[in-house]
Amino acid sequence: MNLKEIKKLDAYFKRTFQNPSLVVKTRPREDDSCELYFGSEFLGVVYRDEDEGELSYHFSMAILEVDL
Predict the structure, then answer these.
(1) CA 20, CA 53: separation in Å to the nearest integer?
(2) b/e for 7-28, b at 16 or more Cβ within 10 A?
């Protein structure tokens, strides 16, 4: 993902969840995804998906039973 996409996603998450502590960061050695953090806590991965000319993003978050 390029810097422009990451900035858009960062603004989207902050606005949607009304939380300025959410931060989208690049992933080392990966160009089709980025990571979402709450402060320094890793939350999940956002994947870029382009299919038949349509662009979308998919957020994936694992929730461990021990965390519930």
Answers:
(1) 32
(2) eebbeebeeeeeeeebbbeeee
For the beta sheet containing 41-51, the strands, ordered from the edge strand earlier in sequence to the opposite edge, are: 22-26, 33-38, 41-51, 54-60
Q: pLDDT digits over 13-49, tens only?
A: 999 999 999 999 999 899 999 999 999 999 999 999 9
Task: Please give the DSSP secondary-structure letter assigned to residue 52.
Answer: T
Neighbours of 5 (CB within 10 A): 15
CA quadruple 14, 17, 20, 23: dihedral, nearest 10: -60
For the entire predicted model, the pTM comes to 0.89
